[in-house]
Amino acid sequence: MVDESGLVGIDLHWRIMPSYFASAFDYEEVWQSLASTAFCGRKIPSLAPENLLLLLCAHGAKHGFERLGWICDNALCLARFPDLRWPEVLAASARAGTTRELLMGLTVAEDLLGVPLPSSLPRDPVAVELVPLVRKRILAAPIPTSESELIPLCLRMFESPRHRIRYLLGQFAPSRAEYQVLQLPPAFYFLYYLVRPIRLIARFAVR
I need a surface site. Which of 56, 74, 80, 184 has the fewest CB within 10 A? Predict the structure, then answer.
């Protein structure tokens, strides 16, 4: 939703993460530990700090940690909540198979911003290998990250073949780019599902 000036946009979501992306928010336990936050004179439900950190790291992972601002959010979350219950954070991420996403978000914040991390955190060799790639892209590459870079990066962040397959299948759903390139009448919308893989293959081939 964008206003007439084109300067203000509201991105509406009906779930925390896309259905094809491994997420701790697929589990009911996350929603049973909501906190309360004051906003404009009212109390509104909000995520517990532990789950807020999981959300920030998951959102960054979905986009390949392409924006420094998102990494700053991770750092500020750690500074704002110094008494995070780390066993709960790690248990939730392990249950969802997203520990590498979490460690990526934290390690990138440590690498770029010097954020101190608890010594008890596990170290993931793959996450350590991916951090220099994220740093290099933040310093040199344009935003947004191209699909030919983002998809391989996300595949390496997933910890199980099941999550990789789930992610790849999700990539075949038409995106806004297909709707912009080829404007079809509603009766022919099914053709977008044919255009999407052709477009992805062409972009990878060109790269």
Answer: 80
